[in-house]
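Whether sequence alone determines local backbone shape is best considered at the level of individual chains. When preparing material for the folding task, we compiled for one chain both its residues and its backbone structure tokens. No coordinates are needed to read the tokens, only the vocabulary itself. For completeness, the protein is quoted in full, as a sequence line and a line of structure tokens:
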Amino acid sequence: MKDNQLVALHPSTTLSHKPEWVLYHEFVQTSRNYVRTLTDVRGEWLVDLAPHYFDLGNFPPGEARVALERLTLSKKRREDKG
């Protein structure tokens, strides 16, 4: 994420959709970069489990940072309502 590497789901994955957030076990580099052996997860789970890693201050500009900003804003709105 922090390196802004573009990856695709490996053709052998069983997911039928493109998830926004995943945990993966294998990074496969061929003519393209792939992630394989992965699990679709909710971004909120990642932020809750590792807030030090997903701190916005640690992220360079890029798609991952934009997605994380959206996630953080959404989480804050839910907390403010509750």
About this structure: Residues 8-81 form one domain.
